[in-house]
Amino acid sequence: QLQLVESGGGSVQPGGSLRLSCAASGFTPDYYGIGWIRQAPGKEREGVSCISRSDGNTYYADSVKGRFTISRDNAKNTVYLQMNSLKPEDTAVYYCAALRSVFRRCVLIPGPYDYWGQGTQVTVSS
């Protein structure tokens, strides 16, 4: 089955940057796109960004628009999340997952995503 592995998390000061990677391997089922979903301590999972598999269209939550950029490298089967101007409220475990193929556009709710990675911790603190 599809395996997704996140990397690139860490601790940064407010205003700093990190780039997360989501590497795909294994059998590749049909799916619409790859999304990044985060979960802060004591909070529900929140969709952050998504990129479609076919045409590379991108979508962002309002909370990260203008600061985060999602991209993909098809040759490396990897999706990236460049995070700039990080804020303490961005602190969370960040997961990547595959959006089911029944969708025709990205959605930023966690429910329709499968093949979740193990997550990578991002901590923004002074």
Could you give a short description of this structure?
The protein has 126 residues and is mostly beta strands. It is built from no helices and 11 strands.
Report on this model:
A hairpin with a 6-residue loop joins β4 and β5. The protein starts with a strand and ends with a strand. With 126 residues, it is mainly β. The chain is 0% helix and 50% strand. It contains no helices and eleven strands. Strands 2, 4, 5, 6, 9, 10 and 11 form a seven-stranded mixed beta sheet that branches. It has a four-stranded antiparallel beta sheet with strand order 1-3-8-7, with no helix packed on it.
Q: Proportion of β residues?
A: over 45%
**Level of helix content?**
under 10%
Number of strands: 11
Q: Which structural category fits the helices and strands?
A: mainly beta
Largest sheet at a glance? Answer: 7 strands, mixed
Q: Let me know the average pLDDT.
A: 94
Distance between the termini: 40 Å
C-alpha Rg (nearest Å): 13 Å
